Fold this protein.
Amino acid sequence: MRGEAERNCFDLVKQHLKQEDFFGTTVEDDRLIRKIIDTSWENPKSSEFPDFIFDEGFVEHFQVTSSKV
């Protein structure tokens, strides 16, 4: 089930996209990434894949953890 952490992370990405430029992307890629983030909405079926949807695809949030062992 999607939780507040995914929503907060997505909102943080949206906030930074408005303030910063990307490094190592073309102008076209930059526009596409901003469009995807700006037009995405939460999946109304919160317990199903994917977390966020846009007209041409989806965004799935993965949390990666690691240990020293």
User: Anything to note?
Assistant: The longest strand covers residues 52-54. The CA atoms of residues 62 and 68 lie 20 Å apart.
